[in-house]
Specification:
Elements (H helix, E strand, L loop, with lengths): L6 E15 L2 E8 L8 E4 L3 E8 L7 E4 L25 E7 L5 E7 L9 E7 L13 E10 L4 H11 L8 E4 L16 E4 L4 E8 L6 E5 L4 E6 L2 E8 L2 E3 L4 E7 L6 E8 L11 E7 L24 H6 L20 E13 L9 E7 L2 E3 L7 H7 L32 E3 L2 E4 L3 E9 L8 E5 L4 E8 L17 E3 L1 E4 L3 E9 L3 E7 L2 H6 L2 E6 L31
Parallel strand pairs: 1-4, 3-8, 9-12, 11-19, 20-25, 22-23, 24-32
Antiparallel strand pairs: 1-2, 4-6, 5-7, 7-8, 9-10, 12-17, 13-16, 13-18, 14-15, 14-17, 18-19, 20-21, 25-30, 26-29, 26-31, 27-28, 27-30, 31-32
């Protein structure tokens, strides 16, 4: 028997259902007809089994974001990396063993841009014999941030790929599936959080957006951050939250203000100069007898403060791991792989002049834009020794070192190559990665997510990384444990992890447009010597690949 932990079982039925937002009703992909999808509750150490049944008209895969899947990458859910997508009419039993994760994670589709509507929370409670490292809250409430397109999201994705251009912006931000009362036809369904005076609530916040780092602020209320990315943190009192796509933040909200109604508002930290977004709102509503205000005051947001676009890395840099006896940390100190990955937006000429302006927008890591296998997946190819699917020559550093952040560089200077290259790691290797942002085009932040692992964020800064100076300031005492770290535009972030989870593990930017353009790569962690250091065998019902439409060359 491969798994012997306590069992939690769910049935996820992928199907289209009709939902109305912004005065328009349309059919969207959902799980069990819900938008957002169902919340999974489990305890640390339990095994969650999810039967995914595809009753829709599109291929799909489901990823358990932040779950390490120890020795079992087969159900990690990354299309064409660890599995072929689940075809219409097929099913796949996915197993999710919760090892040391505790807090908030989430699940989402990992095929094309299906995760725009296919996502939900994963709440991992302490074991029954354990308690929270903070006073037990009166209640806990997931808050998921998302986006809404009036158009069909898959068509938006396919049009952008075919034309080689950026995709159309979404039409609204969402809080728990609702745009809020500043959008048309939305006031009645605005998300409301009812609180009792004097009580404390654990808010589990998830940024499930495709493209935006967001602020959250609650009018006249401070909050206390106690966790991030499925791990606890030292308490941090703050008047706002900044969160990037792929990240989760747990915070305590004390209902300590005069009973009334208060805006909970999220807004994009920075948006392109040619596009302005309307903030999305929820309402914090005190229980009791009082006269509600005729109108609500909007909360004041911090100024940009000179941090570029990467407010989330500035915010998370204030957080620290608990690093105590009950929640110890172990930062790798004997680094065997020093990796330096540049993150770049690129341009590439279209072979047939079919793209807008005859050039295609791409993205790369170390000047390689990854192409997903067309009718195979990397994990199965590695496990079965199938040749011609990937190469093992992903570079440890870029071919050319120069000043990556000084001045404005044309997109055309950042030429890229195509490939399906992986980087090989021996079992128990200790890895350091410095992600270096670059100033090609307009530059951008990049929330980088690694499957199969959490990592310690030991440093971050602005400008080019200095290998002689910057490591002297690394935090090796209580660094934050994360699975998604933002790399600032024109700056860098450094992470460390121990490669003790054998398998095939995807790393990519969690801005979906950047991932689509090629900002992604794969680690293969080899088996160790002992039986419990080896990858487990595949399940019997692995999905089979179906050839994709030829126009979808740059597929997630």
């Amino acid at each position: 028997m491969l798994f012997s932990a306590a069992l939690v079982h769910h049935k996820f039925e992928v199907r289209r259902s009709s939902h109305t937002r912004l005065c328009t009703t349309k059919s969207i992909l959902t799980i069990n007809g819900q938008f957002p999808g169902p919340t999974i509750y489990a305890r640390r150490g339990e095994l969650v089994v999810i039967d995914v049944i595809n009753r829709a008209d599109a291929n799909i895969s489901i990823h358990w974001h932040g779950v390490k899947m120890p020795r079992y990458p087969w159900t990690d859910g990354a299309s064409h990396v660890t599995q072929c997508p689940i075809s219409p009419g097929k099913r796949f039993r996915q197993r999710m063993l919760l090892s040391n994760e505790e807090g908030t994670l989430f699940w989402h589709a990992h095929s094309d841009w299906s995760r725009a509507t296919v996502y939900g929370a994963i709440i991992i409670l302490p074991p029954k014999t354990h308690t929270y490292p903070f006073p037990k809250p009166h209640a806990q409430v997931p808050i998921l941030l998302g986006e809404w397109w009036n158009a069909d999201v898959q068509q938006v994705y396919e049009d952008a790929i075919a034309q080689g251009i950026d995709a159309n912006f979404s039409d609204a931000f969402l809080m728990n599936g609702q745009p809020g009362d500043m959008y048309p036809c939305s006031k009645q369904d605005t998300f409301k959080l009812s609180v009792e005076p004097g009580k404390t609530y654990l808010i589990r916040m998830i940024n499930a957006m495709l493209s935006y780092i967001m602020y959250l602020k609650i009018k006249d209320h401070n909050v206390t951050v106690v966790g991030m990315d499925g791990a606890y943190t030292k308490p941090l009192n703050t008047d706002h939250i900044a969160i990037a796509p792929g990240q989760t933040i747990d915070f305590l909200l004390e209902a300590n203000q005069p009973p009334s109604r208060y805006y909970m508002a999220t807004k994009v930290y920075a948006s392109p100069w040619w596009h302005t977004y309307v903030p999305t709102t929820g309402i914090l509503e005190y229980v009791g007898n009082y006269t509600p205000p005729s109108s609500l005051e909007f909360p004041y947001y911090p100024k940009f403060g000179g941090y570029g676009w990467a407010e989330s890395i500035h915010f998370s840099s204030k957080l620290r791991s608990l690093a105590n006896d009950k929640h110890p940390i172990k930062v790798p100190m004997n680094i065997t792989h020093n990796l330096f990955f540049t993150l770049t937006i690129n341009m590439w000429p279209c072979e047939t002049n079919s793209c807008e302006r005859n050039n295609r927008v791409l993205a790369s890591m170390n000047n390689i834009s990854m192409l997903s296998p067309q009718n195979q997946n990397i994990l199965e190819a590695y496990y079965k020794g199938i040749g011609g699917v990937f190469t093992t020559d992903f570079p440890a550093k870029p071919a050319r070192i120069f000043n990556f952040t000084e001045g404005h560089k044309s997109l055309y200077e950042g030429r890229t190559e195509f490939g399906t290259a992986v980087y090989m790691l021996d079992y128990n290797s200790e890895v350091e990665i410095v992600f270096q942002g670059t100033n090609f085009g307009e530059g951008s932040d990049h929330p980088m997510h690694l499957h199969g692992y959490s990592f310690y964020v030991v440093g971050a800064g602005y400008g080019d990384f200095d290998p002689n100076r910057d490591p002297q300031n690394f935090n090796l005492i209580d660094p934050l444990l994360m699975n998604t770290v933002t790399v600032p535009r024109n700056g860098w972030s450094a992470i460390r992890f121990k490669a003790n989870n054998p398998g095939v593990w995807y790393m990519h930017c969690h801005f979906d447009r950047h991932q689509t353009w090629g900002m992604k790569m794969v680690f293969i962690v080899k088996d160790g010597e002992a039986p419990n250091e080896k990858m487990l065998p595949p399940p019997p019902d692995m999905p089979r690949c179906q050839p994709p439409p030829q126009k979808l060359l740059f597929r997630i």
